[in-house]
Amino acid sequence: MASKSASLRKAQAPLSCHFCNEQAVHWKCEECDVFMCTSCKEKIHQRLKSIQDHEIVSVSDIWKDNPPRRDVASNKQEKSRLVKGKMLKSSIRILQTLEKRIFDIAVNKEGEILFNEMVNNEVKIFTDTGEIKTILDTSPLTLLSLHVNKDNELIAGLRDQGPSFPITDFSVRQVIILDGEYKRKVLLETDKKGRKLFSYPARIKTDSKNVLYIADIMDENKAGRIVAVNTNGRLKFTYNGSTDGQSFFPHGIAITPSDNIIISDWNKNSLHILNTRGELLGLQFVDKEYNIEFRIRCA
Fold first, then answer.
1. Which UniProt keywords apply (predicted)?
2. Residue 118 contacts residue 144 (beta carbons within 8 Å)
3. Is 38 helix (H, G, I), strand (E, B) or coil?
4. What is the CB-side half-sphere exposure of residue 66 using CA atoms within 13 A?
5. What pLDDT is recorded for position 56?
6. pLDDT tens-digit profile of 82-131?
7. Strands, E assignment, 11-72
């Protein structure tokens, strides 16, 4: 009985400061995931070089306002939302949500979210204050993908109205680069021989040299390829997936600091890693390794 009572008292012991081990805890750093007293917050934690953007919250606020866990994504197609969150050490803090059917998003250097909906051809900005502003309307062309490059230029994928496929000689499939006033600066549509560069530019990313990598959908089944093109329209390479004969379904692109290209393949629940020459460096099956299914996007 005495042993059980001691264990109970130990389990009910109050939190102690991470730095001095005292029990007068008043603060928590969300990024470090540590509790601390007021003295250590000012004398130790604030002197750390890496804490400039760390969020410090009062323990009383945590206990007073402890919202229930929420899903930030849904597999129900009729329910779509845009979620802005902040990565913490062991969780994501939801900052803003927007209940709209979003087709694509991009983030500019000011931290504003640019997005387009499935119901119109407008590019909108979602500000930190929750305000929504329309900055561009691509009508009569249909707006597809969005991206902001390292120079803070907006890039958009476009197509003509009507059925997406089949592609004809009269089909319009473009990627445009806009300047700071959202006026067209560069138009990418055909190569030097007049052949269409894209079929359906669904996703766009750029590397440190502003080379564009486009997830280009080729048919109604959403099989596709990766098209790499310079801003002058010169084709660098196309990548049609690994050589196993299976269809390639590129639905997301991410660029690493070393300019390697990571593509999510919906068909095989895998990640393809390419270098800037379009050579396959690796293939990771995330369903087998990490039990992740239907990986659509990566960043």
1. Metal-binding, Repeat, Zinc, Zinc-finger
2. no
3. helix
4. 5
5. 81
6. 888 888 877 788 888 888 899 999 999 998 999 999 999 999 999 888 89
7. 27-29, 34-36, 56-58
- pLDDT, tens digit, 9 for 90 and up, residues 22-66: 767 888 887 777 888 888 888 888 877 666 667 787 776 654 444
Query: Three-state secondary structure along 78-132?
Result: CCCCEEEEEECCCCEEEEEEECCCEEEEEECCCCCEEEEECCCCEEEEECCCCCE
- Please choose, from the candidates 197, 192, 215, the residue with its C-alpha nearest in 3D space to the C-alpha of residue 205: 215
Q: What span, in angstroms and rounded, lies between the C-alpha atoms of 270 and 257? A: 21
Phi, psi of 156 (to 5 degrees): -135, 145
Q: What is the pLDDT of residues 131-145, one digit of tens each?
A: 999 999 999 999 999
The DSSP element (H or E) to which 43 belongs, if any, is helix 38-43
Arithmetic mean of pLDDT, 266-295:
84
Give the CB-side neighbour count of residue 121, counting CA atoms within 13 A: 13
pLDDT band at 79 (very low <50, low <70, confident <90, very high): low
Give a three-class secondary structure readout of 232-275.
CCCEEEEECCCCCCCCCCEEEEEECCCCCEEEEECCCCEEEEEC
Residue 253: closest CA among 184, 157, 151: 157
Burial 240-255 (b: 16+ CB within 10 A, else e): ebeeeeebbbbbbbbb
Q: Are 142 and 182 in contact (CB under 8 A)?
A: no
Q: 20-37 as b/e, with b when 16 or more CB fall inside 10 Å?
A: eeeeebebbbbbbebbbb
How far apart CA 204 and CA 195 sit, in angstroms, is 20
On the question of pLDDT at 5 being above 70, the answer is: no
Instruction: Mark 191-211 as b/e (b = at least 16 C-beta within 10 Å).
Output: eeeeeebbbbbbbbbbbeeeb
The token duo for 47 is 């002197």
